[in-house]
Amino acid sequence: MSEFVPKDLDRRRFLLEVGSTLAVLPLLSACSIGTVAQADSSILGKLRRNALPIGGEWSGAIEAPTDVSWRTELPVTKDDGERIRIAGTVFASDGKTPSPNTLIYFYHTDKFGIYGRGNEHKHGKYRGWLLTDQKGRYEFSSIRPASYPNSTQSQHIHMTVTTLDKREDWIDSILFEGDRFISARERQESGKRGGFQPIVKLTQGSDGIMTATRDILIS
Question: Does 48 reside within a domain?
Answer without folding.
Answer: no
